[in-house]
Design brief:
heterodimer, A: 587 residues, alpha+beta, ten-stranded mixed beta sheet, six-stranded antiparallel beta barrel, 15 helices, 26 strands, globular, B: 463 residues, alpha/beta, eight-stranded mixed beta sheet, seven-stranded antiparallel beta sheet, 24% strand, elongated
Chain lengths: 587, 463
């Protein structure tokens, strides 16, 4: 982790008190969020409170053994990340130290007092200029590019430098620190830039999103879509499938860049991501998914202050790729752990607590974070987006707790996970009655044009059936299903088909794990087709029991697991047709 | 070594000492009583003018005249090869009458976090011989899978059966067991010890005993001592280690006690706000490291106060561990052993450890189908209570019967019954065969044709 130049360096103070991750120092002239080095081992910390001559610091590493009287040095810089070629395929801790470098430097366990730059400063990258001498450049202008993986990494004029005219620009192989471009103003540009994580990167304009982020997950794309540049929350009790859903999104969403933040979660799960992603192929490019991914892993037992920072590190990296004109999706698993880190630090500061011990600024921090998402026109005039999908882990699965409630006030899409569904192995366990997407109207046209004009109608029909089923189930609970009118017995069956065929999706099946919009449309249409046949037959006098028991309908679920499903689907539709016709003619 | 006599306040397990030389955070402290007895403690908060010490034993006998020695290092655990077969106190001292441990190493008990990059993915199937675990909530080496139980339920027997029967297919190697008891009764401890002795497991076990009448604050370090030992056995001596921690509820109570004594702002139900981080520091010490032969698999046991799974202790645990095995009072009342309710139970790492290479190709789908069918049958029980069996459709009646069969044939098994995974899966198929084939929507046709008893029978007849 490197820091951004701001003030004079090297003021030395003295530690006065140590209580876990929060320490107090005196005699340093610090500003809020300055990065400081604590103790003889130079542990990294950040100023979070100034009170009289005391400076309160949160330390990103374990403070055991540190004593009062040890030195504290203020770097005068704020917490910043290194941005440049080498970010992709990396796996970082919460303060952008590459975990692979840490293994080399200190072995299998995370020890303290080791610093490691976010980017490899030795590696040379092939730089191709895209501007020439005499061209005018301004903050955000793309001056060149590097083939980083299968992704082209665009090199930008940092947003915080003055523009000017290009005096000289080089072609060839350089490290990220070497100067590749000089402006007439004397500004020298390298491929790497640094940006303070707590400050959003500037854009020309924020726009309203109009294109869905296609995830290949039927219940998301089909019923509750998120837009590119949108925000979504997935709250759910443990075991309801938050992490699997997040990982499915990281794998299959059609963003160009994916930033995945494992914030205070399980070590073994991060390992799973690490072993799985390099082997998985991007359905669009056929290249390993890892090539478009940046991972941030600050597991639950890693220092709590670094967990607090991990979310900012992640979103800053996401914004950087957005500024190149890419669609980026960011998954944060879990924002509750982030909020808990805030709570822990806040209680060590003995701040007056808000609801359930969380600091009073919880809502403000959450909304600041989600507001960094969006579809934007970048400084260079391209369009780019950051979509943010945050998992929330409400204690006891109770959605009325502060983190869930404050999140719901901000995000536009709500995917409500339901423990009851996961217990019966209905996956993804997203409750179709409680979930919502506020992007339906803005995305309407896209579905009309890109999928089918029928799609929006089909979607509303499916939602209606599911809603109706919920009402009917209440009656069934009281009087049994045989007591329902015939048409409604059919509705129950059709709702079951929508649930079992369309909504249930097997993340572990090679085919079913990703389902494109065309197939989603065909599947829904087939179910609607059966519904039309069924209601038609029922009005013609066929009993619901007979309609429900037609054989060919039972083959429909198998469609999910077949790659070239169209011939089989046509066969099934034809036999459903003829079976119903036979019933009708004998009725 | 300098000894201070500047105690200014004693409150619960905390001792406040004034005017010391600089003392390190987390440093180990000896408190010397007037009669020469030494009590141990640890620095919780240190500053120029005041040091707060948390005492691991009762503070009885400590007064303003007691001496305080700061040892200049954090708490270390002496570890060595000879630890196997030994019984130690919750503070790490031998209580089996044997000699002191000859340390080969002294390790910091807090333990550092394993770098996620250095972890190897856990994927080796552990056969526990219990169908509800192997078949539907499969355990793998390096996993942490807690047992969520309630007061008066047979969680100890389940833990013992797992410890006794666990093996990796195709491997003769037995697991080493590290057993840490926190605040359990002498009777319960004896139950464990007898079983360890009966089966010869004690020879490859290290036992830490903090009993109900031992100091509560000592419970804070007991699991850390146990896990430090486990890490030594696994990552330095290449052993596969099963760690049983019981009862984590008592551990959390001790944590709350200290939080209250420090007058901290409490979180939910009075537990400290950092309990998630604290528990993670224990549970995350499980796993496998790339390039090392050994592994740590954890079985924490906790009793849910009032059988409430949303209580902060099971809740925070469930968010850290890789699943949970839930013991049900209802099944226990029906006389079913092991009374594991598969519906709220879960193993997150199951999919890594099953399938063609590990168990059998049909494992995942059979498990899903069993779950779905049992869940449906179980729901119908509620309906039957209202409308009676006669109002059910024929299909519903089949699922209702399935739920009973599932509990009596699949869940129920003997305390010493060690079922192989193939027996478990075939048992599952036999149950599924009571349902019409077209109801088995979770399983693809190929697998049905290959494993369904009906088609197998046909294939046999034709062959």
């Amino acid at each position: 982790m490197e820091v951004k130049e701001k003030k004079e360096k090297g003021q030395e103070g003295v530690l006065r008190r140590i209580a876990g991750p929060v320490v107090t120092a005196v005699n340093i002239d610090a500003h809020m969020y300055d990065v400081v080095k604590v103790g003889h081992e130079e542990l990294m910390g950040e100023v979070i409170k100034i009170q009289g001559d005391e400076t309160i610091i949160q330390v990103y590493e374990d403070t055991s053994g540190i004593r009062p009287g040890e030195p504290v040095t203020n770097t005068g810089l704020s917490l910043a990340v290194e941005l440049g070629p080498g970010l992709l395929t990396s796996i970082y801790d919460g303060i952008q130290r590459p975990l692979s470098v840490l293994v080399d430097k200190m072995g299998d366990f995370i020890q303290r007092g080791v610093s490691a730059p976010g980017l490899d400063h030795q590696k040379k990258w092939e730089f191709r200029p895209l501007v020439k001498e005499g061209d005018k450049v301004s903050p955000g202008t793309i001056i060149g590019e590097v083939q980083e993986t299968n992704i082209v990494h665009r090199i930008l004029v940092p947003p915080n430098v003055q523009g000017g005219t290009v005096k000289s620009i080089k072609t060839g192989s350089f490290t990220v620190e070497e100067i590749v471009c000089t402006l007439d103003t004397g500004t020298q540009l390298a491929m790497m830039q640094k940006w303070p994580v707590r400050v959003p990167r500037p854009v020309t304009e924020k726009m309203n999103p109009t294109i869905p982020l296609i995830t290949g997950q039927r219940i998301l794309d089909g019923l509750f879509p998120i837009a590119k540049g949108g925000t979504a929350a997935i709250p759910g009790p443990f075991g309801s499938g938050k992490t699997v859903t997040q990982q499915q999104l990281a794998k299959w969403s059609d963003a160009e860049i994916v930033v995945y933040i494992g914030c205070g979660e399980r070590g073994n799960e991060m390992t799973e991501v690490l072993t799985e992603f390099p082997e998985l192929e991007d359905p669009k490019t056929g290249k390993p998914l890892m090539e478009r991914t940046v991972l941030i892993a600050n597991t639950s037992n890693m220092p709590v202050a670094a967990r607090e920072a991990s979310v900012y590190t992640g979103i800053t990296i996401a914004e950087y790729f957005r500024d190149m004109g890419y669609d980026v999706s960011l998954m944060a698993d879990s924002t509750s752990r982030w909020a808990e880190a805030m709570r822990e630090i806040s209680s060590r500061l003995e701040e007056m607590p808000g609801e359930e011990g969380y600091p009073a600024y919880l809502a403000a921090r959450l909304s600041e974070f989600y507001e960094r998402a969006g579809l934007v026109r970048t400084l260079s005039g391209n369009n780019g987006s950051v979509s943010v999908i945050g998992a929330v882990s409400p204690p006891g699965g109770d959605f009325s707790e502060p983190v869930t409630q404050n999140t719901l006030r901000i995000v536009k899409v709500f995917w409500a996970l339901d423990a009851k569904l996961s217990q019966r192995r209905h996956f993804p366990a997203i409750n179709w009655l409680n979930s919502y997407s506020l992007y339906l109207d803005t995305l309407h046209d896209w579905y009309d044009k890109e999928v089918s004009p029928e799609w929006n109608v089909l979607r509303s029909w499916a939602m209606e059936v599911l809603q109706k089923e919920a009402e009917l189930q209440e009656i069934v609970q009281l009087v049994g299903s045989d007591a329902l009118p015939e048409a409604e017995q059919l509705t129950i069956e059709i709702a079951r088909m929508i649930r079992e065929i369309f909504l249930q999706q097997n993340a572990y099946d090679a085919v079913d794990t990703f389902c494109d919009m065309a197939k989603q449309y065909d599947m829904m249409k087939a179910i609607k087709g059966f519904a039309d046949l069924a209601y038609g037959a029922q009005t013609a006098g066929v009993s619901p029991a007979q309609i429900i028991s037609i054989k060919s309908k039972n083959d429909l679920p198998q469609i999910k697991f077949i790659k070239d499903y169209r011939p089989e689907l046509e066969r099934i539709q034809k036999s459903m047709d003829s079976e119903i016709n036979i019933l009708r003619s004998s009725a | 070594m300098k000894e201070y006599r500047t105690i200014s306040k004693i409150a619960g397990p905390l001792v406040f000492v004034e005017k010391t030389e600089p003392v390190g955070y987390g440093e180990l402290v000896n408190i010397v009583l007037f009669d020469g007895t030494i009590k141990r403690g640890q620095v919780l908060d240190t500053s120029d003018d005041l040091v707060v010490v948390q005492v691991f034993e009762t503070t009885a006998g400590i007064g303003k005249d007691s001496g305080i020695r700061f040892l200049g290092e954090t708490i270390k655990m002496p570890v060595g090869k000879e630890m196997l077969g030994r019984i130690l106190s919750g503070g790490g001292k031998p209580i089996d009458g044997g000699p002191e441990i000859m340390p080969e190493k002294r390790l910091d008990i807090t333990g550092a976090a394993i770098n996620p990059y250095a972890r190897a993915s856990p994927e080796e199937f552990i056969q526990t011989g219990i169908s509800t675990i192997d078949g539907t909530n499969t355990l793998v080496r390096g996993q942490k899978l807690p047992i969520f139980s309630g007061a008066g339920l047979p969680h100890n027997n389940i833990a013992l059966q797992i410890a006794r029967q666990s093996k990796v297919l195709g491997s003769q190697e037995a697991f080493a067991v590290v057993f840490a008891a926190m605040g359990i009764t002498k009777e319960e401890a004896n139950h464990f010890m007898h079983d360890f002795e009966r089966t010869g497991a004690l020879e490859r076990a290290v036992v830490f005993l903090n009993l109900a009448d031992d100091p509560a604050v000592e419970r804070i370090i007991t699991p850390r001592l146990a896990l430090t030992t486990a890490e030594y056995l696994a990552f330095e001596l290449d052993m596969h280690v099963l760690v049983i921690l019981t009862d984590m509820t008592n551990y959390c109570e001790a944590l709350r006690q200290i939080g209250a004594a420090r007058e901290e702002v409490p979180g939910r139900r009075g537990y400290p706000g950092y309990m998630y981080t604290d528990l993670a520091g224990i549970y995350e010490r499980a796993g496998i490291i790339k390039g090392k032969k050994g592994s740590i698999t954890q079985f924490p046991i906790l009793t849910m106060p009032g059988d409430d799974i949303t209580h902060p202790i099971p809740d925070l645990t469930g968010y850290i561990t890789e699943g949970q095995i839930v013991v049900s009072r209802e099944l226990h009342r029906k006389g079913i052993y092991p009374p594991i309710n598969v519906l709220p139970s879960l193993s997150r790492l199951m999919n890594l450890g099953i399938g063609k290479e590990h168990t059998r190709e049909d494992h995942k789908k059979v498990s899903d189908q069993l779950y779905a069918a049992y869940a449906e049958g179980n729901d119908l029980r509620g309906l039957v209570a209202i409308v009676g069996k006669d109002a059910l459709s024929e299909r519903d009646r089949m699922f209702l019967e399935f739920a009973d069969l599932f509990e009596n044939r699949f869940v129920r098994q003997g305390y010493n019954e060690d079922r192989s995974i193939f027996e478990t899966l075939d048992g599952g198929w036999n149950l599924l065969a009571t349902l019409p084939v077209e109801q088995l929507v979770r399983i693809d046709r190929d697998l049905i044709n290959k494993y369904h008893p009906k088609f197998r029978q046909e294939a046999k007849e034709q062959g």
